[in-house]
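Quick check before the chapter quiz. The format below is the same one you will see on the exam, so make sure you can read both the input and the output lines.
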Amino acid sequence: MKTVQITEIPKFDEVMKEQVETGNPVFAVFLSDIDPETKQYWCPDCVQADPYIKKALSNVENAILVECFVGPKSGYKNVPTHPYRVHPQVQLKAIPTIMFWNKDGPAKKLIIETIEQCETLDDFVKSCI
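Here is the expected output.
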C-alpha cells in the first residue's frame, strides 16, 4: 500500500486527480492532525480507527491511501466553513471518514465513529474494489 499525505488542504484536488490517474484503487481518509505534545491524533476516534484502516487496505493490491489532515482542533471542530466541510465532493461531516475515490470523485463513503464501524472496514473496502 502506498500512502500519500495531504497537509495543505488547497492541494487536495490536484493530489486526488494525480492518484486516481494511476488506475489503482484510491482511498482518501480524513483525519485530525497529530498533536505535537501527545504525538497522537487529537481526535480519539482517529486514534482508534487508524490501525483498522491500514489493516483493511494492506490486503488490496496497489492500493493508495491518501491521508487528508483537517488541521488543528480549533480550525476544524465546530467550524462549518472548514474547506473539507464545504468542498463540493467531500462534504465532510465527521472524522475519521474514509472514501473510495474514482475519476468521478467519491464513489463510497464510511464515517468511522465506533469500534463496530472499525470492524466493518474490511467489508467496506471489499465492496469498493
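If your answer matched, good. The longest strand covers residues 105-111.
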